[in-house]
Amino acid sequence: MDRLDELALLVAVIDAGGLAAAGRKLRRSPAAMTRALAALEERMGARLIERTTRRLAPTEAGRDLAERARRLLADYETALRAPAPDAVRGTLRITGPTVFGGRHLTPVVSDFLAQHPDVQADLTLHDRNLDLIEGELHVALRIGPLADSSLLVRKLGEVRRLVVAAPDYLTRRGTPLEPGDLTDHDVILTTVVSPTPEWRFEAQGRVRAVRLEPRLRVNNVEAALSAILAGRGVGRVLSYQVAEDLAAGRLVRLLPDFEPPAIPVQLLTAGGRFMPPLVRAFLDFAAPRLERLAVLR
């Protein structure tokens, strides 16, 4: 017999005032009830119920154990009691890339919180992909191909990897016409994205790698963007990071015929059949809003 069942049996016997009545409630025979109670007393090393021919009465040890058993059984029922199917409450833990998260994901999370007053959010922005399971995260926004096919994925759109420079820099140093020309330019390398000084290009189905000698290495995307905008060199960025700067003429897109294929942008979660209502509600809220972003088309 399960340990919780033993405690429930003791409580039932005391409440019913007899083994037979408790047995009917628990759908157990009198013999089974007697054996179970004797086993519990053996394990406790104390008599829990005083038996006479006319009635059963709990001993002091029996009353003490029954009181603790009631609390334990109540806590057990509470733990198993699922929230209402539509309950959206609790803490939502989300992760995403630093720049995209700051510009586009944070506003969506803030709007979600405004609609759900019983929800809190922990938003972790990092340019290294964090493991959902190890990090106890509910949702991740990822840019790039996925290594784990067991995750539930919703594609939002795609971005491209661009080479850009400021007009002032190009006036001074000239415009590279093919990837090999980059070796004669000041290159700004974002080390969190490309730890090795090598950029890959693709044209007519052929991949070409160009080894570079960066003039500036920086481990922060926003800092690299600032240096590129200041005319300090040529940099490689994701299209959403510079969409406004390209449209305003503050940056120039270089080598468009040699750009690698587009990169998917996706929302993912480890949840499946038993996805918490909070996570499902956020995915249903966030996905359509992020899909409408012009920078993901």
Structure characterization notes:
One of its GO terms (biological process) is DNA-templated transcription. It comes from Caulobacter sp. (strain K31). Belongs to the LysR transcriptional regulatory family. The protein has about 300 residues and is an alpha/beta fold. It folds into three domains: about 5-80, Winged helix-like DNA-binding domain superfamily/Winged helix DNA-binding domain (Arc Repressor Mutant, subunit A), CATH 1.10.10; about 90-160 and about 265-295, 3-Layer(aba) Sandwich (D-Maltodextrin-Binding Protein, domain 2); about 160-260, D-Maltodextrin-Binding Protein, domain 2, CATH 3.40.190.290. The protein is built from nine helices and 14 strands. The strands form four sheets. It has a five-stranded mixed sheet with strand order 4-3-5-14-6, covered by helices on one side. Strands 11-8-12-7-13 form a five-stranded mixed sheet. The protein has a two-stranded antiparallel sheet with strand order 1-2. Strand 1 and strand 2 form a beta hairpin. The protein is rod-shaped and about 105 Å long.
